[in-house]
Amino acid sequence: MTALKLTRIGNSVGVVLPKEILSNLRLEAGDSLHLSEAPGGYLISAYDAEFERQMEVARKVMRENRDVLRQLAK
């Protein structure tokens, strides 16, 4: 695990990622990240437009079929 320090960037606060992490994620300045909540914290991964599209479809299906999914979960 790598400890990262929060840094003031103008009126915002950001995290500077070490070169090794950027390399492992195959990211460079200007790229987008995907942040998702996970048990015990958050996961950061390279942004994947196709994955985001699939997740939006899944969210739509879950919204539209909320009652059915609740019944199946019992």
TrEMBL record:
<dbReference type="InterPro" id="IPR007159">
    <property type="entry name" value="SpoVT-AbrB_dom"/>
</dbReference>
<keyword id="KW-0238">DNA-binding</keyword>
<protein>
    <submittedName>
        <fullName>AbrB/MazE/SpoVT family DNA-binding domain-containing protein</fullName>
    </submittedName>
</protein>
<dbReference type="GO" id="GO:0003677">
    <property type="term" value="F:DNA binding"/>
</dbReference>
<dbReference type="InterPro" id="IPR037914">
    <property type="entry name" value="SpoVT-AbrB_sf"/>
</dbReference>
<dbReference type="InterPro" id="IPR013432">
    <property type="entry name" value="Doc_partner"/>
</dbReference>
<feature type="domain" description="SpoVT-AbrB">
    <location>
        <begin position="7"/>
        <end position="52"/>
    </location>
</feature>
